[in-house]
Amino acid sequence: MRAFTLGDFDFALPPDLIAQHPATERSASRLLDGRHFPPADRVFRELPALLSPGDLLVFNDTRVLKARLYGGKPSGGKLELLVERVLPGGEVVAHMKVSKKPPVGTVLAMQGGFSATLLGRWPEEDGPLFRFAFSGDPYTLMDLHGHVPLPPYIEHADTAQDVERYQTVFARTPGAVAAPTAALHFDPQVLASLDACGIRRANLTLHVGAGTFQPVKTENIAEHRMHSEWFEIPPATQEAVARTRASGGRIVAVGTTTVRSLESWARSGQARGDTDIFITPGFRFRMVDLMVTNFHLPKSTLMMLVSAFAGHDRVMSLYRHAVEHRYRFFSYGDSMLLERTPT
């Protein structure tokens, strides 16, 4: 097995190919069918015709929170919180952007008229995140006063369009700070077409964290510390996967978050909890046969995952094709259909 380094996952991307806004219609985005060579340029609404009766599409039903909050310290200094997760007891774990970190016990005045009391760091005493107690229900306060946590490469402030479109049509379980972007292309018409074609559907939940945008900084990718995200695969989905396998159907993961959840379950036997699985070339996939995915950032852990799934050389060739044919990249961009390379 070839030893891969960080530079192997780099590619040149013209800045104007980074999508700043969603397509006019969800399913009108482009779909690069990368299962064969040469690849085929398609439209996303064609996806049901590319699958087979008895296949199972597995979606991530996480709901993006309005997780970006603004406020100030008692001294008057401005700050920004990006909520990473709400703990079972109602405390909040967040990233904090501020010129000078306030001491534990500081009460922050947040926009919207509520307060956030700093309780300490998380998950350890010197952890990278911060734990807060809000003066009201966190979900209600975020919904009323928060902003859509658009990725760092989207340059505009969040708008009413982002409230609707940076969310899947089947989002149900609140907890994500980033959308499962491959699923943004599905609309009611595509879902109805899948049903009409005899293609089954199932859901799981993985709350996408801000760590999904964390760059890999070590040339030796094995030294990268992967972020942790909470996931749950409900019994109904476990049963649907088993039935599909027994009948000879294929498991089609919608997005890298779904791949990470299913492969974490297959590897550990645990269908609920935190996962920090790091999928790089050489990984043995046990669950997923096909994947729908967007185009990812250079040198990212997601580039490594799709390269592990479909083969490094094939993926890099597909990315060159996408750049040459001016596909739209990243969260609001176009998508790709990949088949697992046999190991």
Protein described:
By secondary structure, this protein is of the alpha/beta class. It contains eight helices and 17 strands. It has helices at 47-50, 138-145, 160-165, 188-196, 235-247, 256-268, 301-310, 312-324, and strands at residues 30-33, 40-43, 56-60, 62-64, 68-72, 78-86, 92-98, 107-110, 114-122, 129-134, 173-176, 200-206, 229-232, 251-254, 272-275, 290-294, 335-339. β8 (107-110) and β9 (114-122) form a beta hairpin. The longest helix is centred in the last third of the chain and has 13 residues, at 235-247. The chain is globular. The model has no long low-confidence stretch (mean pLDDT 96).
In short:
This protein has 343 residues and is α/β, with parallel strands linked by helices.
Observed structural traits:
343 residues; single chain; six-stranded antiparallel beta barrel; globular; 22% helix; alpha/beta
Secondary-structure element string: EEHEEEEEEEEHHEHEEHEHEEHHE
The portion of residues assigned to helices is 10-25%
Mean pLDDT value? 96
**DSSP helical segment count:** 8
End-to-end distance, in Å?
A: 11 Å
How many β-strands, per DSSP? 17
Shape: globular
Low-confidence runs: none
Fraction of residues in β-strands? 25-35%
In the sheet with the most strands, the strands line up as: 2-1-17-16-14-3-12-13-15
Largest sheet geometry = 9 strands, mixed
Give Rg in angstroms: 20 Å
Q: Based on helices, strands and strand pairing, what is the structural class?
A: alpha/beta
Oligomeric state of the chains in view: single chain
